[in-house]
């Protein structure tokens, strides 16, 4: 059975509330094992102030309270494919505060000025429509040279989960998925808290954010969803119309050995007769 590595009662209660009792849910799912939560020390207020000063933005209140309680979050679990084959697949990870950096520093998408002083806007800096989950109305994301885009996590080589400030003065940045190949934006959550709860609701299943992308889940990940939490895909039935994506990694399933298909060489009739005579 799954077991959560925890300490004293106060810490136990804090992490149980933070993870919304996810460990207990996973305990009731067959074949899930090695449920582990790494405890981290909280950030000091001076660290948060220094991060805000460095990037010239304010962390939203819920995110600030999170990092004043724990400097990141790392929760993972394994799945038992067979008695002797246990592999880690589930993972919820939020980086240390110092590891949250500007996306544009990584992919060099800074606005440039052409000789005729006209601003040239690269594809990532553009208007993108998305559906507001609260109102149900179509809203749009307006990015410009003053926008701040921070990377929270990377999903293989397919997408980045981003905290997006349309302007540095914004007090309520939103969480978006940036598809790295097409540079398309997909809306994920209104706030950091909502994104954390979405991660928990999806059990930390691998690449769950791709449920909301245009490319969809890899085949082996979708099989895990159908096996452990099929209800999470009920609202995403159009996934079968999407292109199947390939991820450059070894998926956690057994590889069939082609040796099992080898057959013995057939003997000729003359050889068979010689054996019978002998």
TrEMBL record:
Entry-linked InterPro entries: Knr4/Smi1-like_dom, Knr4/Smi1-like_sf, TPGS2
Pfam families: SMI1_KNR4 (PF09346)
Record domain Knr4/Smi1-like: where: 42-198
Protein name: Knr4/Smi1-like domain-containing protein
């Amino acid at each position: 059975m799954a077991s959560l590595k925890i300490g004293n009662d106060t810490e136990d209660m804090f992490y149980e509330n933070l993870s919304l009792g996810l460990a207990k849910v996973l305990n009731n799912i067959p074949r899930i094992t090695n449920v582990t939560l790494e405890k981290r020390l909280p950030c000091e207020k001076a660290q948060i102030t220094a991060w805000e000063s460095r990037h010239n933005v304010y962390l939203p209140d819920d995110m600030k309270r999170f990092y004043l309680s724990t400097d990141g979050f790392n929760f993972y679990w394994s799945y038992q494919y067979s008695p002797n084959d246990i592999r880690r697949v589930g993972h919820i990870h939020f980086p240390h505060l110092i590891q949250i950096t500007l996306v544009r520093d990584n992919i060099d998408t800074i606005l440039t000025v052409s000789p005729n002083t006209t601003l040239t806007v690269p594809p990532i800096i553009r208007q993108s429509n998305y559906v507001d989950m609260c109102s149900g109305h179509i809203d749009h994301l307006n990015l410009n040279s003053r926008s701040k885009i921070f990377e929270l996590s990377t999903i293989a080589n397919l997408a980045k989960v981003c905290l997006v400030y349309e302007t540095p003065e914004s007090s309520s940045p939103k969480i978006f998925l940036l598809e790295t190949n097409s540079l398309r934006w997909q809306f994920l959550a209104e706030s950091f808290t909502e994104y954390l709860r979405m991660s928990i609701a999806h059990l930390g299943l691998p690449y769950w954010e791709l449920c909301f992308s245009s490319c969809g889940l890899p085949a082996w990940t979708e099989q895990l969803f159908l096996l452990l939490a099929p209800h999470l895909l009920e609202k995403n039935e159009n996934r079968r119309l999407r292109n199947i994506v390939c991820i450059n990694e070894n998926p956690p399933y057994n590889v069939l050995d082609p040796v099992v298909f080898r057959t013995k060489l057939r003997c000729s009739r003359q050889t068979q007769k010689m054996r019978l005579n002998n």
